[in-house]
Amino acid sequence: MNVPNIYGAETIPPDDRPLINGKPPEVAAHSVVYAIGDIHGRLDLLHALYDQIERDAHQQDVEHRVIVHLGDYIDRGPNTKDVIDTFCTTPLSGFENHWLLGNHEHDMLQFLDGVRTAARWLSNGGRETLRSYGITLSEARADSETLEQVRSELAANLPPDHLQFLNTLEQSYENGDYLFVHAGLRPGVSIEAQSAFDMLWIRRPFLTSTEDFGKIVVHGHSPHRRPETRNNRIGIDTGAYRTGHLTSLILRDNERHFLQT
């Protein structure tokens, strides 16, 4: 597999290499999988990473090419609308695309459905998303009447295909020995019994767990300066909206590599 590993295999301690039943995990035969971390409105980085993925994919002698987007496409960065528009109108061709639901998309949908999560969403980057759809909300705390007006404006300004895209995001995706989710899993709970809330929001109980979940969990949600490779998970949220580093994990057979803007 002739692709760059931006960190070098020697930087991953042997005890932290993921294993399934004592063996390196594998994706489905004759396939290559590209998992992309949290984008957060950085259209520039998405295009740059897509370029790298396309170049890499041309080198892969496989039958099946898959891209798994791990959620949090919106908020914080300046170009939420254009990121979603790219997914709706010009996704990379020649790939099977999977788009997972992130907690930020969940909160936006909740806001559109009412105003129950308005304060949390706005404080987590929702104002930037509103601006990308042509709506300005002052930094002052908004009352319920103002929030209802903003909600109505967003519903009116949101293209129908964007709303359909948001409403059809997947909770998880499995391929071979890997499970892809936005945030992680609850230790002590089977994959089948995991709650939607935990797959969107969990942090510390999952991040500190050494439990064998039966699959290697590939996730975003919890940003770190560089990808985290552990015995049971691989985290690829590298804080793109503030660092400029959007990361993709490449999986083929039992090998793994990284691409990064």
What report would you give on this structure?
This protein has a domain at 14-102 and 170-260: Purple Acid Phosphatase, chain A, domain 2, CATH 3.60.21.10. The longest helix is centred in the first third of the chain and has 16 residues, at 43-58. The model is unreliable at 1-15 (pLDDT under 50). By secondary structure, it is α/β, with parallel strands linked by helices. The strands form 2 sheets. It has a 5-stranded mixed sheet with strand order 3-2-1-9-10, with helices on one face. Strands 4-5-6-8-7 form a 5-stranded mixed sheet, with no helix packed on it. The relative contact order is 0.21. The radius of gyration is 18 Å and the shape is globular. It has 9 helices and 10 strands. 34% of the residues lie in helices and 16% in strands. α2 (80-89) links the parallel β2 (64-69) and β3. It has helices at residues 43-58, 80-89, 103-113, 118-132, 144-157, 160-167, 196-201, 204-207, 240-243, and strands spanning 31-36, 64-69, 96-99, 173-175, 178-180, 216-219, 228-229, 233-235, 247-252, 255-260.
